[in-house]
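Dataset card, provenance and construction

Sequences and ligand SMILES were collected as paired inputs. For each pair, a complete structure of the chain with the small molecule in place was predicted and serialized as structure tokens. The example below shows a pair involving flavin-adenine dinucleotide. Curators did not alter the output after generation; any descriptive sentences attached to a record were derived from the structure itself.
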Amino acid sequence: MTRIPDLLRRGPSTSFEFFPPRTPEAETVLEETLVALAPLAPTFVSVTYGAGGTTRERTHDLVVRINALPGMTAMAHLTCVGHTRAELEAIVTRYRDEGITNILALGGDPPADADVAPGELEHAIELVRLIRQVGDVAIGVAAFPEPHPRSPDLATDRRFTAEKLAEADFAITQFFFEAHHYFDLVAALADLGVDRPVVPGIMPVQSLAAIKRMTAMQGSEFPTWLEAKLHAVGDDPEAVRRVGIEEATRLCRELLDGGAPGLHFYTLNRSPATREIATNLGLATV
Ligand SMILES: Cc1cc2nc3c(=O)[nH]c(=O)nc-3n(C[C@H](O)[C@H](O)[C@H](O)COP(=O)(O)OP(=O)(O)OC[C@H]3O[C@@H](n4cnc5c(N)ncnc54)[C@H](O)[C@@H]3O)c2cc1C
């Protein structure tokens, strides 16, 4: 039984996040990505969950399939939104019975395009407790270096994150572009008495418009210096990609040098950026 907290103790981890594809074409892209990233020997991979259960079976099937590949450990994301307690217990029990021993417990956001009821559990910490009751499963939670957009203030968000992480095993962060946001989060959690591993989430910039949209959605900072650097090459998509990879590499180095327990890449189901950054960091020879 492979538990992510045990893997994190062995030294800096490399992990990749995927989402369950919707179409046969997207499935082919993900298959190619899995093949392209396999030589990087990820410590684990994770598969997102459509809040409200919109990807319930697809997330399940992909997690089970990847977890069965030689040397692969797959973690399932799961969200509270739109589910009854009994449904969540059934989902977690099924994973446990099928040998999936790592779950990322999330609050989730109600999808804008679907009519989803709020659900019986309001916050991720309640899902952490539910998973603990079901069985021997390692539990990750989300953490927000720049606080969560629904938080009234930074201190409140840090306190809720500390309470949640104290009952879980590790955290993975939302993406960010300035290392100090991550180190501030880790220091604040330590001040609150919580020193479980917090793995930083990395999102390489691939397109200025896309990253600005995503950053605005999560209510975080898109640094003006990075925007200026990207604008300077703005008409050339390949140059934008190159700057994105250079800056992500620099951020990863700073995080690892500062003691981060690993790097979690938001791959968006594509391989090139993650491969290039891993190669720059000397994590890969492919
Ligand atoms: C690594 C990562 C992976 C993700 N994967 C997915 C995914 O697969 N599917 C998906 O739909 N979404 C995903 N998300 C997004 C996430 O579900 C949303 O950002 C959601 O709004 C917050 O989730 P949470 O688990 O932090 O929720 P919570 O911990 O419940 O926090 C949500 C808000 O409530 C506050 N809060 C927490 N506890 C309490 C309490 N006891 N009382 C009052 N307020 C409280 C927090 O400060 C925060 O403002 C992911 C996010 C991250 C960082």
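Derived descriptions for this record:
Residues 4-280 form a domain with the TIM Barrel fold (CATH 3.20.20.220).
The beta strands are 13-18, 44-47, 74-79, 102-106, 138-143, 170-175, 198-202, 262-266.
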